[in-house]
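It is worth pausing here to work through a concrete case rather than discussing structure prediction in the abstract. The textbook approach is simple: state the sequence, then state the predicted structure, then interpret. We follow exactly that order.
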Amino acid sequence: MRVVRAGFPPIFKQKIRDKAYDVGDSCTLRVHVVGNPMPLLSWYRNEELLSEGGRVRIVRADDGRHSLTVLQTKPNDFGVYKCVARNKYGTVTCRARMLCGGKPRGTCDSATDAVEC
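Step two, the predicted structure:
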């Protein structure tokens, strides 16, 4: 007997959250997404599609854990970051603000947060 797994739309098991950074530090945003088939992810800053290169590193893992790292942050790296996960069954989005200096209100400690700096 062959087991057939039904397809389903993407679901975020871990979303990005607001985070502050100090200029010159690297900042990593992490998500964990599942879906069948496995969703493709796109990252945006202020609605502009980000691609890997320069100071931007994008890591994709087979288990659905993905990260976006901005190396040597600058003041103009602030803004709204968005992660979009898509497969043939649907699309989901999560957003977070990256702020220069100071910890944004309502954020968690980086040890338990979906963001590392």
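Step three, interpretation. The longest strand covers residues 90-100. Confidence is low (pLDDT under 50) at residues 104-117.
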